[in-house]
Design a protein that fits this description.
Layout lengths: L3 H9 L10 E10 L5 E4 L2 E4 L4 E8 L3 E6 L7 E6 L4 E7 L7 E3 L2 H12 L1 H19 L3 H28 L4 H9 L6 H9 L3 H4 L2 H15 L10 E3 L5 E3 L7 E7 L4 H17 L4 E7 L4 H10 L5 E3 L7 H5 L7 E5 L5 E4 L4 H10 L2
Parallel strand pairs: 1-7, 11-12, 12-13
Antiparallel strand pairs: 1-4, 2-3, 5-6, 7-8, 9-10, 11-14, 14-15
Helix pairs in contact: 3-4, 4-5, 5-8, 6-8, 9-12
């Protein structure tokens, strides 16, 4: 199941610019009824006056960006900017998701994709609201049912994205869509989609970065031997992934601040308790930077297995494994071979029941 912070992480990983050929872009926005005094774009901000705001910046090629507010109005917009062009936003703050956004060719392409996905996206929003309500009510049965519905709608959404990519090989939107598909698809699948892109997209800064990402992804495909790494545990003692050889291991990437990660921990704990005496364990890598918050989350979620983290802004293991969205995990067999990727909810239990006799 992909939640919003998953998308944010994926998009933030693609903030790519080539300074040698950069030119100016402009964002001009008008959201009727916008009460916030400031609106934000990454680390940049713009003052809102009479419901209007503007940004300028530099880019070398079409670039996906996001605008958001920090108040309860919850304005959040994803769109494209490009050099020597103006992206225009026109709408109402109360329904900012329906704002009309025009501008560069890439934005026109994104508008077409959004139109194709409109029905699916509307269903997603309903399911996210159901998920949030079930989560607040701590209704585990309802949560599980909604997660299954979200997984199904995600599959439909992916099918639309893949169709768009194949039909629009010269669009930067297609490259960004491949990046968004990274979490739930193999490196081989992503590579096939990438090779279908026009050479102009493949050779762009975004394309070069995407190619590098896919190369890492292929190293973590099912059937590959897990890459070796070592990080300090909660007591500062280095622990390597190879030290678990001889057991089935769930290599789990998470963080204390990641809501979906915390929501998934009970499922992982259930699997651990059920199979810990049958040659299974969990090896968790936190991408936290704050030691106290990390340890507090481990205690709160009652996670008894080995926990490690280098507590750096860019966790070395996460970079090595190309982790751009969490939670992410890899199920390893006793020889260290990857047998499954990103098992969530009941899928983890079912896979363990299959491989551990």
């Amino acid at each position: 199941m992909k939640l919003k912070n998953t998308l944010l992480l994926a998009l933030s990983a693609l903030a790519i610019q080539a300074s040698a050929q950069e030119s100016t872009y402009t964002i001009s926005g008008h959201l009727e009824g916008l009460k916030d005094h400031w609106i934000y774009k990454g680390r940049d901000s713009a003052e809102v006056k009479n419901d209007r705001f503007s940004f300028t910046g530099k880019t070398a090629e079409p670039e996906m960006t996001q605008l958001y507010t920090k108040s309860d109005s919850r304005v959040y917009l994803v769109f494209f900017v490009d050099k020597n062009t103006t992206t225009t936003i026109e709408g109402k703050a109360a329904s900012s998701g329906q704002a009309k956004i025009t501008g560069p060719t890439a934005q026109a392409d994104l508008n077409r994709l959004n139109a194709l996905s409109k029905t699916i996206d509307a269903e997603k929003e309903k399911l996210y609201a159901e998920y949030e309500a079930a989560s607040k009510a701590k209704d585990k049965d309802r949560l599980a049912a909604v997660e299954k519905k979200i997984d199904l709608i995600d599959q439909q959404s992916e099918a639309k994205s893949k169709e768009f990519i194949k039909q629009n090989p010269k669009s930067f939107v297609s490259a960004y869509q491949i990046k968004e598909l990274e979490y739930s698809n193999s490196g081989e699948t992503l590579e096939a989609l990438f090779k279908g892109l026009d050479p102009s997209i493949q050779k762009s800064a975004l394309g070069i970065k995407l190619d590098e990402t896919i190369a890492i992804k292929k190293k973590t495909s099912v059937g590959k031997l897990v890459m070796e790494f070592s990080q300090p545990d909660t007591l500062g003692k280095p622990v390597s992934v190879s030290s678990f050889k001889g057991k089935y291991v769930l290599l789990d990437f998470w963080a204390s601040w990641c809501g979906p990660c915390r929501g998934e921990n009970p499922n992982v704990l259930k699997a651990y308790n059920q199979f810990k005496d049958k040659g299974f364990t969990v090896f968790s890598v936190s991408i936290d930077e704050n030691r106290e918050k990390w340890l507090k989350a481990v205690k709160e979620d009652q996670l008894p297995w080995t926990q490690v983290s280098d507590l750096k802004r860019k966790n070395a293991a996460a970079e090595q494994f190309g982790i751009h969205a969490i939670p992410s995990n890899f199920l390893l067999d006793p020889n260290g071979n990857i047998v499954a990727v990103n098992l969530r909810g009941d899928a983890l239990l079912k896979k363990l029941e299959e491989v551990i006799k």
